[in-house]
Design a protein that fits this description.
Layout (H helix, E strand, L loop, with lengths): L2 H8 L2 H7 L26 H9 L11 E4 L5 E6 L13 H20 L2 E7 L16 E7 L30 H11 L5 E6 L5 H21 L1 H9 L1 E3 L1 H7 L3 E3 L2 H8 L14 H15 L3 E8 L3 H20 L3 E4 L11 H10 L7 E10 L20
Parallel strand pairs: 6-7
Antiparallel strand pairs: 1-2, 2-4, 3-4, 5-8, 8-10, 9-10
Helix pairs in contact: 2-10, 3-4, 4-11, 5-11, 6-10, 6-12
Length: 389
């Protein structure tokens, strides 16, 4: 191996270029890492049955920062694991709170399925400040039997929901009834739902502008060393590492797995902005974003912790409704992140989505379309997410 190529490998360069971007997979995930997606089966404990569905909620970087305390009978106390945060890309933990909202929505759907009303009290010991989270619980949940409570049909989609980061079928626009169904899914929560599809009048320009913001934001995250290294921290490379951790960003590419085992991929060093890896990942992302026939977004009035939870609950419903319709979805959180280098993209996407007022926050922005099915993300399993003591 030539010395120049070796240096690029140690710096993380050519390696990630080989897999075409963070989160790419070319092999199957180990069965034990995705076993939770089979569902809880005949689990006799009602709370555990409900939580076994809740842990399948989407989560930023697949961190699974949920911790649940079941030590008080008849109660579920949800906390946030302080070791599972994204201080560089999500410095105010807005995305983390949204992920907890997703968890609570799936919990609520599962409780309804068993004739139970989930009484959810948010921040029972006080709300977190705007800058950081702390040890206080996110929510206290008590179950109240209500046999006449109607199940929500979205429950049936929990085990099938996926985040699909592949190339979409640009030639297949999202039909108008599907947009309406996604909008209806949001209705229980106070978020403004917006969308743009390729078959709408004047959509070409709007789609192109949104694609450009997505590209800009993705490049910024890749060429900012501290944000890229934050993702490197959560890389799980190869079947054994994926099975051991069951979280984070899974990569099963054989080349990267082999190089990692040989010590030729240094996760402590970011590649240079003009490195082959960066150029390859940008090209790969460009192809994916160009294939999107539509985008959806959720805008909130205000950005309190409660609002962030509501936004997560709304997004979970949108994804489940999309799953029922056979739609693929991929969140584009980079432009929504609140660190200095993303300020331009953050301002531009708020402008494009009609969220320019200081009180407005774009809580979610995602591409939508049709794509080949993908495997689910690994899950640590319920026991790993229960408070011990």
């Amino acid at each position: 191996m030539q010395r120049r190529a070796f240096v690029r490998l140690v710096g993380g360069g050519v390696v990630l270029g080989a897999v075409g971007g963070l989160g790419a997979c070319s092999g199957r995930l180990p069965a034990e890492a995705i076993a939770a997606w089979q569902g809880p089966g005949a689990e006799p404990d009602l709370r555990r049955w409900i939580l076994s569905h809740a842990i399948l909620a989407p989560h930023s970087h697949n961190l699974q920062s949920w911790l649940v305390d079941l030590r008080t009978p008849g109660e579920m106390l949800l906390r946030c694991d302080p070791q599972r945060l994204l201080p560089e890309t999500d410095p105010f933990s807005r995305q983390i709170m949204m992920s907890h909202g997703c968890f609570l929505e799936l919990l609520d759907l599962a409780a309804r399925q068993r004739g139970q009303r989930a009484q959810i009290t948010l921040f029972p010991e006080g709300t977190y400040g705007p800058d950081q989270i702390d040890a206080r619980p996110v929510a206290r949940v008590r179950l109240v039997a209500e046999p006449t409570l109607a199940p929500d049909p979205l429950f049936q989609q929990i085990l099938s929901r996926r985040t699909n980061r592949q190339v979409y079928a640009l030639e297949r626009p999202v039909p108008a009834p599907a947009w309406q169904a996604l909008a209806e899914a949001v209705r229980p929560h106070p978020l403004r739902f917006g969308f743009i599809g390729s078959d709408q009048a004047g959509a070409a320009t709007a789609l192109q502008r949104q694609r450009e913001v997505a590209r800009q934001a993705w490049r910024t995250e890749l060429v900012t060393p501290r944000t890229l290294l934050e993702s490197y921290r959560w890389l799980r490379i190869g079947a054994s590492e994926i099975a051991r951790h069951r979280d984070g960003i899974s990569i099963t590419d054989p080349m990267l797995t082999a190089l990692d085992r040989l010590g030729l991929f240094n996760r402590q060093q970011a590649p240079a902005p003009d490195d082959t890896a960066i150029r390859t990942q940008l090209k790969d992302f460009d192809a994916k974003i160009a294939s999107a026939p539509g985008f959806v977004w959720l805008v909130s009035e205000g950005n309190s912790r409660v609002v962030q939870i509501e936004a997560g609950r709304a997004w979970a419903r949108v994804q489940l409704a999309g799953t029922a319709l056979g739609l693929a979805m991929h969140p584009l959180q980079q432009a929504l992140q609140e660190y200095a280098e993303q300020a331009q993209a953050h301002a531009e996407i708020h402008r494009l989505l009609g969220a320019e007022r200081p009180s407005h926050t774009v809580q979610m922005w995602a591409r939508v379309g049709h794509a080949e099915p993908v495997e689910p993300a690994p899950r640590r399993g319920l026991d790993a997410q229960l408070v011990r003591g």
